[in-house]
């Protein structure tokens, strides 16, 4: 029986382990992919202390630090989480069973993909998932942002500050973003919204993105026009699916998007279950590595306080009985 099981080996889970060791909590970290999404980041420019670092190198550094501190990392997929009398039971795909008094879930968000030709090929070669992760400078570039909600609108405005042209490619007839973003998009000389558009292919020259093949449907005539937009950058902002399915059978409260509802200690409605990283949703996370490591540290600290509190009434009760 461990004090804690951390599920997820991305930056949130690894940080939670580093802090758990500082708090002397016996624990194990279980994850499918070491580094999580971070390992996919070709060039990280916004992680303090490193002007520029690849996701792979940052992952190696976090893993080494976790292990050096005494954290144990198991590369396994968790298929089931259940309750026991004293805490929780975790079952992996290979039928290994682990038990702990508490859990931290740090299973991240799987970004929705378009699933179209060229998408896998050009990730990191012009396809971006995060405008603020890049060089913040798109001067002389033509970009396309795919999506129509807040994340897409915000990205268009941000990129539009420096890019010579930004297309927002959206299949709907009206952007679904907050008015503040809509106003800025309308006011911008550089941003053009292409409504009723489906992206069919991301084109490239083998090295980098060169264009987008789209189909635009005329809402009146229903006629479909095929068009190629020449772009150097493509931002895919069509949301993500949080890895929270494991907690559904336990009755953990989630919002309509599947993100877990937490309090300021990152505790869920089920006593002893905490969450960290991207799965918390936008109220407490900005889906960035800095935010993930911050919440990983917070969740481990909350587990430490929780276990201390759990112990305190027992000791007090025992001493009362002895005295009596
Ligand atoms: C291409 C790309 C570039 C990016 N660039 C930057 C950048 O430059 N700067 C920045 O700050 N952020 C960047 N991000 C975002 C950043 O990587 C994420 O915000 C961060 O990794 C979230 O950390 P996390 O620990 O919450 O989740 P994740 O990193 O998603 O890790 C989740 C972990 O949970 C594991 N897991 C999921 N389900 C299970 C299960 N059932 N059993 C076991 N394990 C499971 C996964 O294997 C993984 O280890 C980028 C993301 C991408 C995709």
Counting DSSP E segments of at least 2 residues, the number of strands comes to: 17
Mean pLDDT: 90
Low-confidence segments, given as residue ranges, are none
The structure class reads: alpha/beta
> Largest sheet at a glance?
7 strands, mixed
Residue share in β-strands:
25-35%
Ions, cofactors, ligands: which are bound? flavin-adenine dinucleotide
Q: What distance separates the N and C termini? A: 32 Å
Order of helices and strands: EHEHEEEEEEEHEHEEEEEEEH
- How many helical stretches? 5
Would you write up a description of this structure?
By secondary structure, this protein is α/β, with parallel strands linked by helices. The chain has 2 domains: 2-111 and 239-323, FAD/NAD(P)-binding domain (3-Layer(bba) Sandwich), CATH 3.50.50.60; 127-236, 3-Layer(bba) Sandwich (FAD/NAD(P)-binding domain). It has 5 helices and 17 strands. The protein has helices at residues 11-22, 55-69, 150-160, 179-187, 289-323, and strands at residues 2-7, 27-31, 73-75, 78-83, 88-92, 97-105, 109-111, 127-128, 142-146, 165-169, 191-194, 197-204, 209-217, 224-230, 233-236, 240-242, 273-275. The strands form 4 sheets. Strands 1, 2, 3, 4, 5, 6 and 17 form a 7-stranded mixed β-sheet that branches. A 5-stranded parallel β-sheet has the order 8-15-9-10-11, with helices on one face. A hairpin with a 4-residue loop joins strand 4 (78-83) and strand 5 (88-92). Helix 1 (11-22) packs parallel to helix 5. The longest helix has 35 residues, at 289-323. The structure holds flavin-adenine dinucleotide (FAD).
């Amino acid at each position: 029986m461990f004090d804690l099981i951390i599920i997820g080996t991305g930056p949130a889970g690894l940080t939670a382990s580093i802090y758990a060791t500082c708090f002397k909590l016996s624990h194990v970290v279980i994850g499918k992919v070491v580094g999580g999404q971070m390992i996919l980041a070709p060039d990280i420019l916004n992680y303090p202390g490193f002007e520029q670092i690849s996701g792979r190198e940052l992952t190696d550094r976090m893993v080494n630090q976790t292990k050096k501190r005494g954290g144990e990392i198991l590369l396994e997929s968790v298929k089931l989480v259940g309750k026991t009398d004293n805490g929780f039971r975790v079952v992996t795909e290979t039928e290994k069973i682990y038990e702990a008094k508490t859990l931290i879930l740090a299973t991240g968000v799987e970004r929705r993909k378009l699933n179209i030709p060229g998408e896998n090929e050009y990730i990191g070669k012009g396809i971006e998932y995060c405008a603020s992760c890049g060089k913040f400078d798109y001067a002389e570039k033509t970009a396309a942002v795919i999506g129509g909600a807040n994340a897409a609108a915000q990205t268009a405005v941000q990129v539009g500050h420096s890019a010579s042209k930004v297309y927002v490619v959206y299949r709907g007839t009206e952007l679904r973003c907050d008015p503040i973003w809509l106003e800025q998009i309308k006011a911008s000389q550089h941003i053009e919204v292409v409504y009723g558009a489906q992206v069919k292919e991301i084109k490239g020259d083998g090295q980098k993105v060169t264009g987008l093949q789209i189909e635009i449907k005329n809402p009146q005539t229903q006629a479909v026009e095929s068009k190629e937009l020449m772009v150097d950058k493509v931002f895919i902002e069509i949301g993500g699916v949080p890895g929270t399915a494991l907690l559904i059978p336990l009755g953990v409260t989630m919002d309509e998007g599947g993100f877990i509802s937490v309090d300021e200690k990152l505790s869920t409605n089920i006593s002893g279950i905490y969450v960290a990283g991207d799965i918390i949703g936008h109220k407490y996370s900005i889906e960035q590595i800095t935010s993930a490591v911050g919440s990983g540290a917070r969740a481990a600290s909350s587990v430490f306080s929780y276990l201390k509190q759990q112990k305190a009434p027992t000791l007090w009760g025992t001493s009362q009985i002895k005295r009596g």
